[in-house]
Amino acid sequence: MSVLPRGRLQRIEFLEYHLPIWSNDPAAIGLDPLVLTELNGLMVAARAAYTTQQTAHQTALASTTGFHNATDAMSEAASAAIAEIKAYAKTTGDPDVYTLAEIPPPAAPQPAPPPAAPTNITTALEPTGAVSLAWKITQPAPGAELVTLIHRRLGNTGSFTLLAVSGDKKFTDDTVPPGAQQATYLLQARRGADLGPFSPSVNVFLGVPTDGEGGQGGLSIAA
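Given the sequence above, the corresponding structure tokens read:
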């Protein structure tokens, strides 16, 4: 195990502490006084070099801070100038302003993609016989808020009809007619006039035999 510490500064401090002790009686510890004299000179030089390095480091930090402050102020003024150029081009309707200033014109706005289909659809049967639906939906870009179109089909054949439009991510269908055995739901997101794709269909079987023995099963759901 090394007696000298690992750190450079810690080694200087080690010798600053031990050299006076070793110099009290070098012969008693097997050291030549000349060795101690040379070691002391090296230690003093190391301490001086460390002091110089620390001063340079602090100077560098101050210089870096000054550099950052100067470029921040410059950047703020440059951004303000560019904003004035853009405002002038917009006010005059002259696209040549950008050419004269040799800066790129603003990019043309890109239309937002259509909303994605609702996902993670869950369904539950309420004590009243109503069917509660909940889902997740992703907003692809800032802008008009998303709404969800809920389409329903009663029975296992026929066409779907628009049942409701919900601004939430949940809906309770309390219009299932008594005696209905099955309701199938399709969800579709809409943002403004843009319609997204349909979700996978979700089938809800209400009070129909589901145990294979003709017994009455509870609510069962199939996507």
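Residues 8-88 form one domain. Try to locate this feature in the token string yourself.
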